[in-house]
Amino acid sequence: MFQAPRGTSDLLPQDQKYWRYIESKAMALAGQYGFGRIDTPVFEDSNLFIRSVGEGTDIVEKEMYTFDDRGGDSVTLRPEGTAPVCRAYLEHGMHNLPQPVRMYYFCPVFRYERPQAGRFREHHQFGLEVLGDPDPSVDAEVIEFAWRLIISLGLKETSLLINSIGDAECRPAYIGELKNYYQGHESKLCPECRQRLDRNPLRLLDCKVATCQALGDEAPRSSDHLCQSCQDHWTSLRGFLDAVNIPYRIDHRLVRGLDYYTRTVFEIQPLVGGSQSTICGGGRYDGLIEGLGGRPTPGIGFATGMERLALNLERDGVEVPDSPAPKYLVANVGDAARPAALELAARLRAAGVGAMLSRGTRALRGQMRQANALGIPYALILGDDEIEQGVVMVRDMEASTQEIKPLQEFLDGAVG
User: Fold this and answer.
1) Which superfamily, per CATH, for 13-170+226-315?
2) Cα angle 8-13-14, degrees, rounded to a multiple of 5
């Protein structure tokens, strides 16, 4: 028996309602905020992610699905959504458009990591990016969007965490302070963090091992080492969040996992599960476009995992509407009536009315059981007598009542 590859899953029909619910809420909000949709290829030139995500990150070193194609070019299945959007911004000259450019996307992403609840080697994201405006009010607007999305879905037991990690001017000095601190506690670090100490010390703050977390709580804080420009941005951001009544908590250990982040970083976490169950995260990346060969262009965005959102919706018992079933099941009595049943179903669907042809190999009783099992409210029954007389029997499945109507009169009423 073949099975889905480890770390992937099938999205079955009964699970689709959660995804469609999330998509509808996200797209409605995107329209309110003036975002347009973008779709990028599922694979890109590998160097795009090496240059943007960071050569020393876990994603590049351990998690990317990278291979040479038949032409000998190194390509990588998309491990995150921001870099491809920035590549498209540059390739299509979007800097010539009115700034900022606002884009959102739904996309699969691929990371070779240990599968866990709500996180897979292939998972799916909703994300958005704002390119071309450095103002902290844009940060607040993006964070407000993320918060409103989570609340609109019905997930209330969540917490918004924010931090500022500085920029290219002030971060080097802070990282020096960080290294000095951790070098004094190197024996207490987990093996992975000992490796990070030299190549990516900022990620030490993000470790989930208990001893490393305790060290991180006492580590120097990035917000205490900001240059004046970053400090002004940080102060203004908090003022804007207060102005729109978005509740937040400052987390000095919040750094995110990608090298391109600058200044603002944020996450939304469920109260149960904490950082290992983060449902939304993002931040500012003012140097990313320039690092990809463009002119200096500020940017900020976030992404949220569809699987993890659906998991939280189920866990919290959020009522999600079922996908609408067809209104009618068209049944036939005897094989000779099958063509007429097929024609009636086709006429209803052509008029925009949901109709499904019954399983024709069953007796009428079995066809009625099929309507009940599928939650279809009405059954339309055609036999030789109904066809000869030009009528249809309409059965109300819930009330267990039925009436005979002239076929054209029924059609006029059904599509009217």
Assistant:
1) Bira Bifunctional Protein; Domain 2 (3.30.930.10)
2) 100
